[in-house]
Amino acid sequence: MAKLKWGMIGGGEGSQIGPAHRLGAQADGLFEFTAGALDHRADVGREYARRLGVPADRAYGDWQEMLAGERTRDDRVDLVTVATPNSTHFEITKAFLEAGFNVLCEKPMTMQVDEGEEIVRIAEATGKICAVNYCYSAYPMVRQARAMVAAGEIGKVRLVVTNFSHGHHGDATDADNPRVRWRYDPAMAGVSGQFADCGIHALHMASFICGDAVEKLSADFASTIASRELEDDAMVNFRMARGTVGRLWTSSVAIGRQHGFDIQVFGETGGLRWHSEQPNQLIYTPVGGRTQIIEKGEGGLHEDAQRMSRVSIAHPEGFPLAVANIYCDLADAIRGQVRDGLPDASDGLRSMAAVHAAVASAKADGAWVDARPPMFR
Amino acid sequence: MAKLKWGMIGGGEGSQIGPAHRLGAQADGLFEFTAGALDHRADVGREYARRLGVPADRAYGDWQEMLAGERTRDDRVDLVTVATPNSTHFEITKAFLEAGFNVLCEKPMTMQVDEGEEIVRIAEATGKICAVNYCYSAYPMVRQARAMVAAGEIGKVRLVVTNFSHGHHGDATDADNPRVRWRYDPAMAGVSGQFADCGIHALHMASFICGDAVEKLSADFASTIASRELEDDAMVNFRMARGTVGRLWTSSVAIGRQHGFDIQVFGETGGLRWHSEQPNQLIYTPVGGRTQIIEKGEGGLHEDAQRMSRVSIAHPEGFPLAVANIYCDLADAIRGQVRDGLPDASDGLRSMAAVHAAVASAKADGAWVDARPPMFR
Amino acid sequence: MAKLKWGMIGGGEGSQIGPAHRLGAQADGLFEFTAGALDHRADVGREYARRLGVPADRAYGDWQEMLAGERTRDDRVDLVTVATPNSTHFEITKAFLEAGFNVLCEKPMTMQVDEGEEIVRIAEATGKICAVNYCYSAYPMVRQARAMVAAGEIGKVRLVVTNFSHGHHGDATDADNPRVRWRYDPAMAGVSGQFADCGIHALHMASFICGDAVEKLSADFASTIASRELEDDAMVNFRMARGTVGRLWTSSVAIGRQHGFDIQVFGETGGLRWHSEQPNQLIYTPVGGRTQIIEKGEGGLHEDAQRMSRVSIAHPEGFPLAVANIYCDLADAIRGQVRDGLPDASDGLRSMAAVHAAVASAKADGAWVDARPPMFR
Amino acid sequence: MAKLKWGMIGGGEGSQIGPAHRLGAQADGLFEFTAGALDHRADVGREYARRLGVPADRAYGDWQEMLAGERTRDDRVDLVTVATPNSTHFEITKAFLEAGFNVLCEKPMTMQVDEGEEIVRIAEATGKICAVNYCYSAYPMVRQARAMVAAGEIGKVRLVVTNFSHGHHGDATDADNPRVRWRYDPAMAGVSGQFADCGIHALHMASFICGDAVEKLSADFASTIASRELEDDAMVNFRMARGTVGRLWTSSVAIGRQHGFDIQVFGETGGLRWHSEQPNQLIYTPVGGRTQIIEKGEGGLHEDAQRMSRVSIAHPEGFPLAVANIYCDLADAIRGQVRDGLPDASDGLRSMAAVHAAVASAKADGAWVDARPPMFR
Predict the structure, then answer these.
(1) Four-way CATH pick for A136-310+344-363: 1.20.1290.10, 3.30.360.10, 2.160.20.10, 3.20.20.140
(2) Which of B231, C45, C220, D163 is the S-S candidate for B221 at Cβ 3.0 to 4.6 Å?
(3) In chain B, where are the structural domains located?
(4) What CATH architecture applies to the domain D137-313+345-363?
(5) ipTM of this complex > 0.90?
(6) Fold assignment, C4-135
């Protein structure tokens, strides 16, 4: 089976997310790295793309050039990954979708809610795939959790509690480092800092595992380092459509937490816990029973959890392979087999609606605010 | 050195907290179990007290009888522990204080804020000790955390995050079990369920470690089991006097969490974590440095942490010995050496003010409410 | 019920094990600290005993004085704990047993195998209790493990693997510290260093949980710090009477391990794991099934595990309360209810036979040696 | 930069190790899957290779056909991976090396010591790369451990303790399953079962991290399931050239352990611990100091540890990316930059010598046996 052709915009040398996409696209041998516009400095980007094996004529200087170059080819790329600075996601994703390309967009998909709605409409109109990289949802044991909830194995979900808290921006003496500062500057990051950066991963996962949508929320934001305009710590309480109570804490000043993304889901007949630092295990407790450790690769897992694991039990699979799972599902989708669970434009839109709702709530002292995008109300 | 004489009210056979107090009072050989009114059934209580070694003439039928019996003796008990149902704590504590006894009261000290203020005034007026059993604060590594904060070892505290969440009331089919039901019935539990039961331990510890007081809060309460009038899950955001941001989650429906009491304290130059299920370790991360495991019993701990440990490093000391540490400090206090950190009536009062503030906030959709007792504003 | 009268020999101020015995004897209110000869310096010991509440006339200058003083009293102590330097255990234990006292002896019970056999015979002849403080066996979850094995819940035991490895003697610059040095000096420690000090706890626990006896062993000893005559690291392979394969590693130079005592038991239909640093949990995996966490205090535990726990689930109970469980069983035994599982002189003897066998094996390059005491062959 | 051309022998559909090699070779975009003889059933293997994207004319029916086909091409594959049944590794590796191919051989490289010596000589003579897939050595934090030891950060190494124990062959009712049985059948597995299968990974890692070679060993083997001719549990004590004491336990009947590969290294001034189930952390304790958690991706790691990590701190990287690190080093080596630490034929040879030594020792009741290959004595 011939490989699919893949192109990336952004993700240049030294970027944090670029390697994850290249590993994700290539690990399973499903995509050939065929085109790229990897850097805002045209020459640098072209040279880096060539170094990574992209043919010289498809190593582009910017996304506009790539769009122009690829749209006219018979062998155009099957998938474009957008991994540029956040504020450009909307424009690029829109342009490629409209030109008939399938797109995987990094989060956040857009900066504004109406932009998000526009992307949703364009994706529908063109019939093209518009996926958003909520890659944590593609860990095998996250899929197991989702499938267990869907199968009623913990009963109706009462409560979901999730945290995405790290301490990597906790050093005030490093706050002016440009790699840190932009995240708290509205000119670059938009209306929200830490919640938009990490919180929406946690919020997406709550919806993803529960199979439910956030309806309303109440937020408490704090900028614990005085020079920051945007929040570096946030607590968001929420309610989902089926009544589930939600609690989400996110922080970038939690010194000592490395990658503190975890989720706990409590239903009428059981509880589940998952932690991104030990992603190959899912902790399950049936009501009145003992806590059990469910291992990636054990017998009898739900289908999605099996499909998304490559090596045998207790051989850990990590973050890059979760990204690879997104690419596996994209390859299937491009070939016509759409997999349930691939995060798409509606997820990207819901996140943006939640970000704006949280900002509004935080400004209103925690007043409860509708978190749904207008088009989904 | 002769032992001090100790009496207990409540804590009868089969009670949960009674054994902890008996172990706590006796473990270090500081108190002799001298008097007791252990059960609301007079005969049962007398018989049980005698079985536990209390002299027959000081095995009382009820607290009034014990008060009458003890107040006239020359060898009256040096300390009375009040471990009766919550709604009686105020009345009994007040009576014994006024009669000149030192009291250790189980939490909550009172049901009402004004009652709490009254106890504070009586304790001041009589000069007697009125301690409240926030026993988690007497774990050696909690003391180490407090001392590190006080010494500036993590800088100004920006953020404190604490949880006290278990799942032992998560079974709806067991919700009518009287041992569970009363906690969610206002007639017995007062204005709050889970927050008043467990949340105030976490809130006390936040104040204790930070050396700071809660000023205002915003609460989101949920009764996830429909038959419950009071909350079984609560999220409380708060702010402390020195500006620290606080986040507190407490739940009794978090199925699979056994004793999920933990606290994280994040300052300008470091972070600390402590978990009650592994109480002999404190996790410390200096900003920009590696996470370190501080062990109970290691060299160089702060004085309080050393004093409150009995056996050598890595020999675990658990909950009963934390209670015993409270009794050690009480013995010192009775003999005139008042130890910093012994939780007292002002702590009991602050808790009750916070409970009422949280209830008011939850009813007002999370509005921010002053959490200070009137007398401390 | 009147308290039993308890006396201690050794365990003076600053000793490591003294506090554990005092807590153990007093925590449950079963024993009154009535007599003591606590220090080899007579005056120091008397003064310390009085400070701890021992009546002045029973604060003795040495064990001979205590023996003379107590044997003639009508109200003689019900139990004597021997916590003196190892080389004196035999002599003191023998003397008190022969005088009709019940004894709890610290390990090692003797230095020689024939001495051990003599103690066993004397205990039998006098009918007095001679217990040995293998206190780890009195943790509730160790009892649960033993009961599960006895009930066949993991099938025939194939394999037991246990470690007792710490790093507290790993600093060569501290090797001449008298508190460390004596353990590796044959003049004070006897034929074995680390194996006799810690290894025999692990070996006892293997026998205890499996309900089986060690038959033969092969040892590899190392003195990793050159100045040490005795071993600071040892590996012992063994076989038990019913064919179980055993593996035991013990070390005092394992820098970074604090209290690394753990045991794993693998049977035909399941496996168990327990770790002394988290003693309130037992990890159980049925063959072909998921790993489960068994919690101290959960419903349905075996009787011994229930009896030996004082406070509710997930409130940790630590080392001092394991020692207290030994004293609880001693109180019962003194009153005529002998509990299965109380470690006695035969355990002390088996340990000493194993120590001498291990030394012989290590000297013979790991040759397999009979580990049974002659009287049990 | 053009991709290198890669071929694989074995690793057919459903094999355990095949996916790890494909992920490893492709993840970083360094190798193109160009040729393969994947299955002992020629048609099945050809079809599977084509499905995986191998050109039809290089999808071979067996290794002989592949050797014949590739050796005459100008664009012959740059690297051949040998992932066939163990007993064929020698023959295939020899043939490809002699034909001038670079080879990555699965472990064990050979079944006999003299075969191993032959491979070493051929590799030297041809100047071709002969790597052996001790892939655990390519985890970033294993490299960090090795570099710390080399830099003297824990002083002279006194002791190394390693385990590779799982329970996946612990079910006697599954012992006749062909996927399990062959490992304990000398006709297929050779002289050793579990030690040759898993133990040699642990033994390699001990040498790898310590930068030292095993000199002699003493083994205790057990077949805990009666029908097994070869051992399913083994303990091996060893000594290294610089005097380090070694202890290695390996088991396949340790029910409940999933992937229990861990290593502890204790030196004069510090200790290190690493566990394959949490491979992104290295636990370090300086003598007299606190235990520290070293995280993959943190600042200041040794060069190899940095180079072998792809995504930022606390984003876990797992087993497939450790294999990918082997392929990265192979790509560098093929292009002329030989990396220190790539496991090669001498490692494969040393393992086989250790296996035969352990078997001999076990048969001689644990007698100490020279574990070095004759050519390295």
Answers:
(1) 3.30.360.10
(2) B231
(3) 4-135, 137-313+344-363
(4) 2-Layer Sandwich (3.30)
(5) yes
(6) Rossmann fold (3.40.50)
Give me the DSSP letters along D271-302: EEEEETTSTTEEEEEETTS-EEEEETT-TT--
Which of A26, A51, A316 lies nearest to residue D27, judging by beta carbons? A26
Provide Rg for chain C, Cα atoms: 20
Q: B72 at the C interface (CB within 8 A)?
A: no
Task: Tell me which of C141, C285, C291, C296 to substitute to probe the interface with A (most A C-beta atoms closer than 10 Å).
Answer: C291
Kindly report the backbone phi and psi dihedral angles of residue A132, in degrees, each rounded to the nearest multiple of 5, phi listed first.
Answer: -125, 140
CA distance C291 to chain A (A): 5
* Cβ–Cβ below 8 Å for C316 and B26: no
Q: How far is B261 from chain D (nearest CA, A)?
A: 23
User: Out of A16, A33, A280, whose CB is closest to D29?
Assistant: A33
Mean pLDDT of D90-107: 98
Contact A294 C290 (CB under 8 A): yes
d(CA B320, CA B323): 5
CATH homologous superfamily of C136-311+345-363 equals Dihydrodipicolinate Reductase; domain 2 (3.30.360.10)
Mean pLDDT by 10 residues, chain C (377 residues): 94 93 96 97 97 96 98 97 97 98 98 98 98 98 98 98 97 94 95 97 98 98 97 98 98 93 98 96 97 96 96 92 98 95 98 98 98 97
D365: its two tokens: 């009741």
The rounded distance, in Å, linking the Cα atoms of C250 and C165 is 5
Q: What CATH code is assigned to B137-313+344-363?
A: 3.30.360.10
- The pLDDT-based confidence of D199 (bands split at 50, 70, 90) is very high
Question: Which pair of tokens denotes residue D14?
Answer: 């459903």
Which chains are adjacent to chain D, needing at least 3 Cβ pairs under 8 Å? A, B, C
Backbone angles phi, psi at A81, to 5 degrees: -100, 130
**Contact list, A287 vs chain C (CB under 8 Å):** none
Amino acid letter at D290?
R
**Residue C233 CA, distance from chain mean position:** 19
Could you tell me the pTM of the whole model?
0.97
Least Cα separation, residue A315 to chain D (angstroms): 6
Burial class of residue C56 (count of CB atoms within 10 Å of its CB; 0-12, 13-18, 19+)? exposed
Confidence of residue D69 (pLDDT cuts 50, 70, 90): very high
Touching check for B292 and chain D: CB below 8 Å?
yes
